[in-house]
Design a protein that fits this description.
By secondary structure, the protein is of the alpha+beta class. The protein has one domain (3-131). It has six helices and five strands. A hairpin with a 3-residue loop joins strand 3 (71-78) and strand 4 (82-83). Helix 1 packs parallel to helix 5. The longest helix is centred in the N-terminal third of the chain and has 16 residues, at 3-18. It starts with a helix and ends with a helix. It comes from Ceratodon purpureus (Fire moss). Residues 62-112 form the SWIM-type domain. Keywords: Metal-binding, Zinc, Zinc-finger. One of its GO terms (biological process) is double-strand break repair via homologous recombination.
Length: 133
């Protein structure tokens, strides 16, 4: 884990513990994520993050609503490892320009701030959802 990732992890833990975010934390996150922080906060403010929890396994994935060139789109997201958006593959995986995409950041913030809507589905429904990626 790099320094920036460690800082982000520490900030997210502090946000979760306090259930709020300070201006100093936002400034540090902006330094690391720049425009993606603004975009992630917009998604969060619009209630665009839901956690899909499968029963009985308790496996979960985030479904994040974001804007694309064609309008609103839904992306599946594992905050630490994957997002189904094009930016993830282009900016994070291919070019390594960003630590994560705006959808991953929105999911991390929503989880830390306890601001995601939880939706329960069957394990089969979650598997079907994942196959659509």
């Amino acid at each position: 884990m790099g320094t920036a990732e460690a800082v982000v992890q520490s900030i997210m833990a502090a946000i979760e513990s306090a259930d709020s975010v300070t201006d100093e934390q936002l400034s540090t996150l902006y330094f690391i994520f720049e425009k993606n922080l603004e975009r992630a906060l917009r998604i969060l403010d619009q209630g665009g993050v839901q956690r899909v929890i499968a029963q009985p396994s308790q496996r979960s994935v985030f479904q994040v609503i974001g804007e694309s060139k064609t309008g609103p789109s839904s992306y599946l997201c594992f905050p630490e490892h994957f997002c189904s958006c094009q930016s993830f593959f282009f900016d994070v995986v291919s070019r390594s320009d960003q630590l994560c995409c705006k959808h991953q950041l929105a999911a991390k913030l929503a989880s830390s701030l306890h601001r995601c809507r939880d939706v329960t589905v069957s394990d089969a429904e979650l598997a079907h959802l994942l196959l659509q990626c």
